[in-house]
Amino acid sequence: MKLNTHILTSLLMISTSTLFADVAIPYGVGPGQADYINNTKYPKIDDPQPTGPLSFRVIGDSTWVADSVSNKLMRFDKTGKFVSEFSIIPVGEKPYRIDEHNLPILNMRLDDFAPVLNEKGEVIAWWIVDCCKHKLYKFSVDGKKLAEIKNEEFGQLYRVEVGLGGHIFVADKIAQAIFTYDAEGNFVNKQNWQWSGMAVTGKDDILYRLMYDGEARRNILVASNLKGRIIKERMLDIFMFNPKLWWVDEAKGECVITYSQPKFDGNYNVVRVGFDGKVKSNVIMPAPIIMNRFIDINKGEVFIGKGNFFKAPEGQFEIVPFKLP
């Protein structure tokens, strides 16, 4: 029997795609909901910048989302269904309190998180950034606190990555540095950082970051080993304003960077750049609501955060696929 070409194509798409459904999270404080802080909820708030989920990760068949206000990690399956969540708040504490002026005072804020993976690529633990207390916490996947890292030099922890070799890399905006620790939480080194993202690759935990050359007015992709020694650097062909490095693919010899125009137009450029410094592709994406980690990749599929914290509780927070040429 001859199979209809359209049906055959559809079957092939089903068999070769993970078919992740959109994750849609309503605003609120219940299970599977994301808390928020904005002028609608607290009209007297001085800071016009709202807060909601600041980071997400897509790993295997699961999407993990940080509720950065209620300080919990939520897990959703590939169909977008809520599976579970756990809180990082110590027993007896609250994520934030309301002062006499009816303003929220944050005790903790989950700014970013990174997985610890086993040899099968399964998540066995998380390292979590608490921006308010200037600490890193290690939690098991079922919510048990395992360890913490603190450093007197921490000022504003922002991003965290964990390499396949177990090393932890945490970027700090005020210190303008990336601090490296081994898997047991022992300090290894500190390297300069310019708020421009980072990526970690391979079993040797090679750190990639972007550094700006003011004279050439270009960014340089820099790779360094665990001793902090630069082992590779390449000047990029195009000028990028406020660039952020997200991941590096050693096999393809390329990295993915987002940047905005000097006169912000409501969009970001997402570029694939080869190790030769040349741009392979450049696509526009709508600027996400205010997040620390708004783009991620899983098994070659790219996902972005989507929503509007200014309008909450209207609408919802979403994780959706994004086509990267």
List the helices and strands and how they pair.
Blueprint: H1 5-16, E1 23-26, E2 55-59, E3 62-67, E4 72-77, E5 82-87, E6 96-98, E7 104-106, E8 110-117, E9 123-130, E10 135-140, E11 145-150, E12 157-162, E13 168-172, E14 177-181, E15 187-192, E16 199-201, E17 206-213, E18 218-224, E19 230-235, E20 241-249, E21 254-260, E22 267-274, E23 279-286, E24 295-298, E25 301-306, E26 316-322
Antiparallel strand pairs: 1-26, 2-3, 3-4, 4-5, 6-7, 8-9, 9-10, 10-11, 12-13, 13-14, 14-15, 16-17, 17-18, 18-19, 20-21, 21-22, 22-23, 24-25, 25-26
Strand order of the largest sheet: 1-26-25-24
Count, helices: 1
Kindly state the percentage of residues in helix: under 10%
Give the ordered list of helices and strands. HEEEEEEEEEEEEEEEEEEEEEEEEEE
Uncertain stretches: 1-17
Q: What composes the largest sheet?
A: 4 strands, antiparallel
Number of distinct beta strands: 26
How far apart, in Å, are the first and last alpha carbons? 37 Å
Mean pLDDT: 91
Large-scale geometry:
globular
The quaternary organization reads as single chain
Q: Estimate what percentage of residues fall within beta strands.
A: over 45%
Radius of gyration: 20 Å
Strand-pairing-aware structural class: mainly beta
